[in-house]
Amino acid sequence: xxxxxxxxxxxxxxxxxxxxxxxxxxxxxxxxxxxxxxxxxxxxxxxxxxxxxxxxxxxxxxxxxxxxxxxxxxxxxxxxxxxxxxxxxxxxxxxxxxxxxxxxxxxxxxxxxxxxxxxxxxxxxxxxxxxxxxxxxxxxxxxxxxxxxxxxxxxxxxxxxxxxxxxxxxxxxxxxxxxxxxxxxxxxxxxxxxxxxxxxxxxxxxxxxxxxxxxxxxxxxxxxxxxxxxxxxxxxxxxxxxxxxxxxxxxxxxxxxxxxx
Length: 261
Prior knowledge:
This protein is α+β, with helices and mostly antiparallel strands. It is 52% helix and 10% strand. It has one domain: Glutaredoxin, CATH 3.40.30.10.
């Protein structure tokens, strides 16, 4: 199988898994509303996500093989990373993502839309992305967040986050184990696994998570995934996509670039 065919196969497999997790989440929400008469509002998105959302069971989370490791590696190859930032410093548009690593909707965005944005905008130098890690869903979010912070110190955060989402399990089921996190790290090219593991246990890793929460609070972010977008160096504004498919993001980026029809 050629590398191109391999990437396509990995993408299809990851997309199918993500869509199945989203369908399961929607079905679970419908059942709970019918049984308890729950009325969901936008202001309650975060609380509801913590209480009832589910991400399905990923192979890696249950000890099976990793999904999409080669695809993820190729996606970011050659693109500059610095800490939590992906892309060129002189990119004209910047988008900040606020996400929890156990959030199934963050997973859906990462699998369904992120590759399109990276290939169409980040790689050509039109867009810079920044990741703010909000670890509120549970202990697994914190454990994964600490490792993500350590990966950021090696400029590999985006590799780690993407691979984790491709292999996300059902939230708060205990799947985020040291062995699971170590397997993800080992699949990232040119990453020092031992340094990442030790770095995840330092105060600086906790400080990174605290700082992300402070940034979210300052910007009025109370749900994941949430986004800020605007011209680099200027004020960023909240962007709430109508769906997690590429189209709303492409439209928002085009408006910021001044190329929207």
